[in-house]
Model the fold of this input.
Amino acid sequence: MKVTISRKAHFNAAHRLHRKDWTFEQNDAVFGKCNNPNFHGHNYELIVSVTGEIDPETGYVMDVKFLSDIIKEEVEHQFDHKNLNLDVPEFQDLNPTAENIVVVIWNKIRKRIKAEFKLEVVLYETPRNFVTYKGE
Done:
């Protein structure tokens, strides 16, 4: 019997969608106002879900407090109120699109979750724009 537990989190961050190897005109044509040289920001919402067997001793799939601590350490402390392009090492050479951000977050959390659990991360960049990554 497998069950999924989920934890919501939130962080605010600035970024710029920009490829260093493209001209300003190429970047502007593809990324539009998201290519603003002075950056722009989002209030990101995050949902992290872990699926696994219920432990017969605890009744938990995983202690949600443990999951909350992982999210705080791996995501909130490292991304909140940061400029993703300038302050987060993973984005020094990786364009911080929502798609790339969700994969980076998934990889950071995956290292801390037992292999027998499935992990899914949903990242809302705006209330209407979101991405999902399951490690597939």
